[in-house]
Structure formats: structure tokens, C-alpha cells
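Take just one protein record:
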Amino acid sequence: MGDTAKKTDKTQNKKSFFKGVKSEFKKIIWPTKDTLIKESTAVVVISVILGIIIAIVDVGVKFGFDKLLQLG
């Protein structure tokens, strides 16, 4: 194969790749603004709640270890 054939194959591969990407993007169902706001709010609220729970457990474990060390 000559250089021209290789360049043509690469160009064709790039074109078919981008055609595939374009067709896949057409299949995406993008969320509405209201759905996006609701889901983002849910993620933030759950993250804050889990952060608080983890902080409470961390303080409790630290307090427990401090008490155990004072006994020894």
C-alpha cells in the first residue's frame, strides 16, 4: 500500500468514528431543568447527611479509643 492509501484509510476511519459518535449523541435523552435540579439537590442533601453521619461515627470512635487508652 502506498502512503495515499494509508492516509485515505485513516481519514475514512476518522469520519466513520465521528459519524458513530454523532449517532450515539442523538440517542441521549437529556434531563429537563426541573429533573436536573431535583436530582442535584438530592445528591447534595444525601452527601451532607452522610458526611454528618461519618463525622459523628468518627468522633464516637475517637472518644472510645481515648477512653480505652486512659484505662491502660
